[in-house]
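Appendix B, Record 12. Input sequence as logged:
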Amino acid sequence: MTISEDKYEAVIGLEVHAQLSTITKIFCGCSARFGAEPNSQTCPVCLGMPGVLPVLNEKAVEFAIKMGLATNCTISEHNVFARKNYFYPDLPKGYQISQFEHPICKNGRVEVETDGEKHTIRINRIHLEEDAGKSVHDEDFVDAGSSLVDLNRCGTPLIEIVTEPDLRTPQQAHAYLSLIRQLVRYLRICDGNMEQGSLRCDANVSVRRKGETELGTKTELKNMNSLRNVENALTYEIQRQVSLLESGRTVEQATLLWDPSSGTAQIMRVKEEAHDYRYFPDPDLVRLEIAEDYVRQLKKMLPELPAVRRQRFMDQYGLPEYDAEILTSSRELADYYEQTVKIINDAKLVSNWVLGDVLRVLNDKKIEIKEFPISEIRFAELLKLIREGKISSSAAKKVFDVLLTSDKSADVIVKEMGLIQVSDDSAIESMVKEVLAEYPDEVNAYKNGKTGLIGFFVGQVMRKSAGKANPKIVNSILLRLLSP
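Logged structural output:
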């Protein structure tokens, strides 16, 4: 059964955990690097040993404030860290240091667009906390029914971004999460890698009949490690809840674990309420005071954010909205584009090649632009050869493919491959005359009104020149020689 748009609407709130890209953990000096040998990045502080004292990482505070500013939040002057008490086998202290009544950022908002309609999503809070460790249940490593614990991740700094229940569709959730991922990467405070868990999303969802104002019973979805999984899981759960209500049953409040392989969600546990966590101020951490001058300094450090940069690309470079949106999808791709434009001063030519051949390589090789082997300078050199008419577009693609695996310049590659375009009028005219002499019937047909044959003649000249003739000159000479 699918959700009836006429009868029901979904109410969705998202909780996004972003693992901050600090060098060390939030309350100790252990490395926060991903992928190290299990339990090799721990110390008495992050292991929760008796008598140890946490010390706050200033860089984590900076990153949290930057995200708050980027999402139009109010930055709290007075901040208190709290102990959130609950048992996880990979949380050695038995509590998590987080923020409860006094989050570092609050009352923010962002705007997303789906199906041509814009939606404002309010952000209730962004707070700082530490991550837990990781339980390993892989049967290749442990016996059935047993688990291992890796505490490297324990104490890694997180921000949790909590929305108001303002989302109504899985598509809006997808768009919102895409924007959050884009923002943390633009700010360079988190790598946004959902597969590795550095960006994680939990969703609270309920359904109600349209027109009602009271919220329905909510469930929480976990284990969604991709944008597609978030959308699929929400679609599944909304349909499940509608099906229950339509059959006269009730929705039970619970935490559900999403299984992308089966496309279903299973109940993991009955959801605890906030008071079950027994929050209270952490006695080992002093109150954090954030001065207005400090916030102003951080605001000046913010990069040009995606929406602003997208509009500037449209205004400054005359790009269509779609092109500008793709080019600003990541800060690094936008930088690559602009650096190339500064060298060659041809915004549209650079855009065409980045959106075409460059993105094709990135998608095929599944790499980011920072891993792309052709620097902006070498890329601009290739595009200059096209603009100056020294090589054809087809020849440029051959050079581009060589540049991917060679350190040679485009000029050298063109000469070595013999791809320099023939632009000598007399040489091209000689080839044109040869072609016209070889196809007298087609010449007569052209002169009798079949002007579409001009493309045929251009193709024959290009073939005779092995693709080296300048097509603009070829076309011009053909029109002159074929005119009455």
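The chain has three domains: 8-293, 305-417, 425-482.
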